Amino acid sequence: MRRGLWMIFRWPLLLALLSFLGLFSALVGDEVYDLLSWLSLGVPLLLVGVVWRRMLQANRSRL
Amino acid sequence: MTARGLRSWYLVHKWTSLIATIFLLLLCLTGLPLIFHEEIEHYFEQHPPLRPLTADAPQIDYDKVIAGALAARPGEVVRFVGFDPQDPLGFVITATGLVPPPLDGHIQPFDTRTGELFAPEPADDGFMNLMLRLHTDLFMGLPGYLFLGVMGLLLVASLVSGVVVYTPFMRKLDFSTVRSGRSRRLKWLDLHNVLGIVTLAWVLVVGITGVINTLALPIQGMWQTGQLAEMTAPYKDAPPLERLGSLHKALESARNAAPDMVPSFVAFPGTQFSSQHHYAVFMRGTTPLTARLLKPALVDARTSELTDMREMPLYVKTLLVSQPLHFGDYGGLPLKIIWALFDLVAIVILGSGLYLWLSRRKVPSEKRLSELNGKAMDAEGRA
């Protein structure tokens, strides 16, 4: 299946929007704005963690 | 996209990355400790002991603080007085002369409630300073800043072209797929792609704000010859000051002029941030954003009366807002940890990009491009 631009970029776009929200929100205020910032910037990092774990597991299952 | 167009984008991604990678790696590595510079400095340098306030504690008199600081440093002059954004701590910065180099300052902390002066902090010429210089100007001053700024522009070009060449790779793959079963190279290619696209927004923002920060010196210069010169124009032909008037009253004048703001630092007459005749009191707001948007209140250094106060022009505000967005120091320790994690991912992206280039197959680029177009994607792994 050949994917179109929307299919390719819908998740990256969402992650970018979340990142911008996180970068911006901690600038606006403290406390709840900081919390919002940590959570939304945490999503891409969480995904990196998931990808990394999946890769390690795949490595292990091949041994 | 045509194969030709794609080939150009691929070349842009390859060359901008190749040129900048070694410097970007340096920036990522030196940036890592710099994210936590406040925590590291607090840990290694003893914070002055702030006593709990008692009813009979003296009220601060800034003129006495200045007199005390100068008495401890005979022959020196005060250049700046700064204020800690969190603790009731201030700093008197003295030097043998008013003009730069600013690195040769001597810093004496004081309690902003009582005016008690503390023992001077040891000069910071250690590890953190090394990291800072390697991160900002490579010990070369303005040319170093501008050089790293160009590296930052290459990073931005590499990110944009990276997104373009990401597209054909993903025509046949689900988002975040890492094909780990076939070859090392294929695995790292997929990893490079997914890590790059996931962290794109953060890297882009930190990259662009980093570039803006490299322009700090020219921006300062523009402000001095622009707005500052305008604000102090009435004093252009005034006779030189014989002695400085009260700083205490000057701070009061500034506070009265901007009651919802607090002073961030005071530039003394004759320093690069003031005129020959003014205390320049830079006021800041109290939210994370307004705390960065300094507002200069110029106070006549003889009479201690306010002469002018203005909003900074847009180009200075851009710089001031770029600073937190680059440093990550505006959302508590968790945000700094997030910054560090993104930084580590960026190091992996740079390393994997370098690996992909070093392990490239010796095949004509036409063949690689047909693969890029998705016709023979799997061949990529059979190196």
TrEMBL record, chain A:
Transmembrane annotation, as ranges: 39-56
Domain of life where this protein originates: Bacteria
Alphabetical keyword list: Membrane, Transmembrane, Transmembrane helix
This protein's name: DUF4175 domain-containing protein
Automatic annotation (TrEMBL), chain B:
Sequence intervals crossing the membrane: 12-36, 145-170, 191-212, 337-358
Source organism, top-level taxon: Bacteria
Pfam families: PepSY_TM
Coiled-coil spans in chain: none
Stored InterPro entries: PepSY-ass_TM
Keywords, alphabetical: Membrane, Transmembrane, Transmembrane helix
Protein name per UniProt: Peptidase
Organism: Pseudomonas alkylphenolica
Lineage: Bacteria, Pseudomonadati, Pseudomonadota, Gammaproteobacteria, Pseudomonadales
